[in-house]
Structures are given as structure tokens and as C-alpha cells.
Specification:
By secondary structure, the chain is an alpha/beta fold. It has two domains: 14-258 and 465-483, Aldehyde Dehydrogenase, Chain A, domain 1, CATH 3.40.605.10; 262-447, Aldehyde Dehydrogenase, Chain A, domain 2 (3-Layer(aba) Sandwich), CATH 3.40.309.10. 37% of the residues lie in helices and 21% in strands. The protein contains 16 helices and 22 strands. The protein has a seven-stranded mixed sheet, with helices on both faces. Strands 9-8-7-10-11-21 form a six-stranded mixed sheet, sandwiched between helices. Helix 13 (388-391) links the parallel strand 15 (378-381) and strand 16 (398-404). Helix 2 packs antiparallel against helix 4 (104-124), helix 2 (71-87) runs antiparallel to helix 5 (163-175) and helix 2 (71-87) packs across helix 7. The chain is globular, with a radius of gyration of 24 Å. The N and C termini lie far apart (77 Å). The structure holds adenosine-5'-diphosphate (ADP).
Length: 494
């Protein structure tokens, strides 16, 4: 069994390079608990509205100095952060598991993933450039510039508390923005843990402010302050819609990564052994609390029985427990309310005709676990499109099976959702895989691949799953503004 590491930072807002301990940030605090055991890890000071405003002021002040640093040198600070994160991979992973609940190996993978964004945007920083465009009139020219937008407000969720922050922080800073980052209420520690790492890498004070706090307190301040020019949120579609409305009076730029309802289509020629392995890995990843996880599994009616049999065997063999224990495949959900919500969805589906065909409650016999926070890995068959288990994001380790007869029917049903974040297609015939992938309305499609997200590519949803992109060449553009100067062309004669 691994242990939660001693904290190397103060559990308080980080503003202008200084920890604002509880008496200087409104006095409110919240206790962060390990969801696997219920044990308290730390009591964190929450930023009140005044503290958030002070953070915005400081970020605004720091902007000029930050933009004066050459882009390549700014990039070096981000790359040094990537290296420092990897050097402290184990400490970050243990803290992440203690705070979030995911198994240690998944947490270590998240540290690598977070570092990849600091590395990528550290490299991209020096590639931001404008262009000179010919003017239709003689003797003039246009200078098209890419300029940092200003202060960015970054709001992140609890499922990938380090990586979601890294994606936004690295892109914003690479663009030359300064930023105020509000991590999720349940998982502020791993965000604060990054502050000394960034400072050691050379980040000047005030360039990144970290303000743990309530969404309903911090969000409106970020949305209303005219100095904040970009808001980037990863969260639920309801929160995104609310933030958009709050940002409307100030005409702020928005980058939103919101909810999903990913279809996972198994073509009739797919290798069901491979599919079972990939599907279980995908659904056990952060116990299904992932916006891109598979939410609706479409399987051909002729292959459903075999798939159920294979899934039942795999589910029975999973080790569910404390993520800090060795060999655990799935940890707890973030809290008991999340677990009750998943349970209700399964019960509703069963009450209206679905069947539970596999379930793993092995954690119930492990002493010392906060059992109410866990949700059993479950396979549910005979799920219909109208059930909430299929029409809404589940956010738990549940595999709902929906059977289909023809491929066109499966694609049509897969697209019949207001969401469009991720989709998966499994099979052998590359032409057909490509055809189905192209027909799916989703920001990213994994073909025979359960985790296609990487720093090198833009990730963002279509339909109600979001606006904009993270990663790739596109990610940095969320924080840049295009401006034009129309200017006389200089000649040799004075
Ligand atoms: P999840 O369901 O993943 O918790 P949420 O959308 O509730 O998604 O939370 C994502 C982030 O949005 C969290 O940091 C949360 O505190 C924040 N948040 C919640 N309400 C608001 C709000 N009104 N304005 C801005 N951010 C908010």
C-alpha cells in the first residue's frame, strides 16, 4: 500500500507568488478527504470574491512583464515545468490518488499527460507569429498580428485535476496571457501543488494565480471583471451554459469543454476479445467519471450474448478498492452523492426492462473503505435509447449494452443526442471503420483505440459538448487575438 505524501505547499490560494492563508482569503475553508477512505488530507482556504478580484488585479499587473519575456524563454519555463513534474511523478501521483480516488497507475499516467501539455505548449510558444498581407492599394501593407488576449480565467473539474489544469495553464501562458485558475472544490490540492513547481521553473509572481473556491463564488467574479478577456471551462454543459450567460454582458471569449454521451459502436466483424479488453479499460478509467468515456455500447444483436459472457468474466476479475493499494483496477467515485446518482440510473433502467448481467461488489468486504463512495462495475443489457442510462452521461463504471440490426440504424441512433464529444468504433474492415467514423457527430473518434487524446491534437466537442479546442496547434489560439495594422509601406527614400 502506498501512502499520501506530505504536502510541499500551503493549502491556500496562491496569489502574486504568496500563499494567502485562511485569515487573508475570507476565512472560509473546506476539508479535502480521500474518497476511498473518508480520511481528511488537508483543510484548504477558499478564495472569496475579494480575493479573486485581488488575483485578477495581480494577473493583470503581471501581464506586461510576462509578454516582455521572449516567447522562446517563456516556452523554456513551461518545458522546465514539464521536466520538474516528471521528476516528481510519484509524489504528484500519490497526492492525486489520495485526493481524487483514481488508481495510482492512472494517476501516474495523468502526471505524464499533464507534463506532455507543458512540453507541447512550451514548444508551441515560439511558433506564434503573424503575417504581412498585400494591400490592394499601392504603397500600403497589412500587418496581421497574433496577440495575447489578456487575463484568462481557467475553471477545471475534479476528474483530471492536474491534466485539465495543465492543458489550460500551459496554453494560456504560452500565448502570453496571465491567468487565474480555479480548481474544482473537491480536488484543489494537486493544483496548488503545481505552484512551487512553476515558481522553481522560473515563472514570475502573478503570472499564474491559483484560487481554490466555490464555482458559484469565483465563476461570477471572473465572468464580470472586464480585465478577464478569456474564460476557459471544463465542466458540465449546464455550468458552461451558465458561464456563457454570465460572460455575455462583457462579450468575453469562451472556450468550453463540456459533457458528452459517447457511442461505442462494435461492428459485426470486430474481434470481441479485443473489444472486451478495450471497453473495460475505457470504462474503468477513473471509474467512468470521464466526459469522453463510452456511454452507449452498440453491439450487433447476433453478437450480444457472446459479448455479455466475455464482459462478465472480465468484470468479475477486476480489483475494486483504494487506489493507493497495489493492483487496483477501479477506485471510488468522487463522493457518495455521485455513487447514489449512478445507482439510481441503473435502478431506473432495471425497473423499465433492462437487466444487470454482471456486477462486481468485491470492495464491500475490504475493511476501512468508505463504501458509500464506491459504485460497482456493472454491465446492463437490454438498455433502450430512451432510458437515462443511455440518454444522459452516466459518470460511473456502468456498461450499458444497446443492440442494433443494421449499421445505418446504429449510426443514426449514435448521433441522436445533443452531445458530440467523443465516439468509438471497433471492427476489422478499414473502409467501413472510416465510413462510420466520418458519419459520427463527435469532436474525436477513436478507431480501435480507447484513449486517443494527446497533446499533439486539438480536442473539443461539437453540438452541446463545447466550443474551441485544447491541445494541438489550435489550443493556443483560444488565448490569442488577431489584430491588423494597415500601414504605409516603407521605402528606401526618406
Ligand atoms: P462536474 O459535474 O464535473 O463537477 P461542474 O460543471 O459542476 O462539473 O464543475 C466544473 C467546474 O466548474 C468546477 O471547478 C466548479 O466549481 C465550476 N463551477 C460550478 N459552478 C460554476 C459557476 N456558476 N460558474 C463558474 N464555474 C462554476
Amino acid at each position: 500500500m502506498k501512502t499520501s505524501p506530505p504536502l510541499w505547499f500551503e493549502p491556500a490560494p496562491w496569489i502574486d507568488g504568496v500563499w494567502r492563508t485562511a485569515d487573508r482569503c475570507g476565512g472560509e475553508s473546506v476539508t479535502v478527504r480521500n474518497p476511498a477512505t473518508g480520511e481528511a488530507i488537508a483543510t484548504v482556504g477558499r478564495a472569496d470574491a475579494e480575493t479573486v478580484t485581488a488575483a485578477i488585479e495581480g494577473a493583470d499587473r503581471a501581464g506586461r512583464g510576462w509578454r516582455a519575456i521572449p516567447a522562446a524563454a517563456r516556452g523554456e519555463i513551461l518545458k522546465a515545468t514539464a521536466a520538474a513534474l516528471l521528476a516528481r511523478r510519484d509524489e504528484f501521483a500519490r497526492l492525486l490518488t489520495a485526493e481524487q480516488g483514481k488508481p495510482y497507475l492512472q494517476a501516474a499516467g495523468e502526471v505524464d499527460y499533464a507534463a506532455s501539455f507543458f512540453q507541447w505548449f512550451g514548444e508551441e510558444a515560439r511558433r506564434v507569429h503573424g503575417r504581412i498581407v498585400p494591400h490592394p492599394e499601392a504603397g500600403r501593407e497589412f500587418l496581421v498580428e497574433q496577440r495575447a488576449a489578456g487575463v484568462a480565467g481557467l475553471i477545471t473539474p475534479w476528474n483530471f485535476p492536474l491534466a485539465q489544469g495543465a492543458k489550460k495553464v500551459a496554453a494560456a501562458l504560452a500565448a502570453g496571457c496571465t491567468a487565474v485558475w480555479k480548481p474544482a472544490e473537491a480536488t484543489p490540492l494537486v493544483a496548488l501543488a503545481l505552484a512551487p513547481i512553476l515558481a522553481e521553473a522560473g515563472l514570475p509572481a502573478g503570472v499564474l494565480q491559483i484560487v481554490p473556491g466555490k464555482g458559484s463564488v469565483v465563476g461570477p467574479v471572473l465572468a464580470a471583471d472586464p480585465r478577464v478577456r478569456v474564460l476557459s471551462l471544463t465542466g458540465s454543459t449546464a455550468t458552461g451554459s451558465g458561464l456563457m450567460a454570465a460572460a455575455a454582458p462583457g462579450i468575453k471569449r469562451l472556450s468550453l469543454e463540456l459533457g458528452g454521451n459517447a457511442p461505442f459502436i462494435i461492428l459485426p466483424d470486430a474481434d470481441l476479445g479485443f473489444v472486451t479488453d478495450q471497453l473495460v479499460r475505457l470504462k474503468m478509467f477513473v471509474s467512468g467519471q470521464v466526459c469522453v468515456t463510452a456511454n452507449r455500447i452498440f453491439v450487433h444483436a447476433d453478437h450480444e450474448a457472446e459479448l455479455i459472457e466475455r464482459l462478465a468474466t472480465r468484470i468479475a476479475g477486476l480489483k475494486v478498492g483504494n487506489g493507493l493499494a497495489d493492483g487496483v483496477d477501479a477506485g471510488p467515485l468522487i463522493h457518495a452523492a455521485a455513487s447514489r446518482d449512478v445507482q439510481r440510473r441503473v435502478e431506473e433502467a432495471v425497473a423499465t426492462g433492462a437487466r444487470i448481467v454482471a456486477e462486481n461488489r468485491s470492495y464491500e468486504s475490504i475493511p476501512g473503505l468508505a463504501r458509500e463512495n464506491f459504485s460497482p462495475p456493472t454491465v446492463v443489457a437490454d438498455v433502450r435509447d430512451s432510458m437515462r442510462l443511455a440518454s444522459e452521461e452516466i459518470f460511473g463504471p456502468v456498461i450499458p449494452l444497446l443492440s442494433y440490426r443494421t449499421l445505418s440504424e446504429a449510426v443514426e441512433r449514435a448521433n441522436a443526442t445533443p452531445y458530440g464529444l467523443a465516439a468509438y468504433v471497433y471492427g476489422k474492415d478499414l473502409g467501413r471503420l472510416r465510413g462510420v467514423a466520418s458519419a459520427l457527430e463527435a469532436g474525436i473518434v477513436g478507431v480501435n483505440e480507447w484513449r486517443p487524446l494527446k497533446a499533439e491534437i486539438p480536442f473539443g466537442g461539437v453540438k452541446q459538448s463545447g466550443i474551441g479546442a485544447e491541445g494541438g496547434e489550435e489550443g493556443i489560439r483560444e488565448f490569442l487575438e488577431t489584430r491588423v495594422i494597415s500601414i504605409p509601406k516603407p521605402g528606401v527614400e526618406a
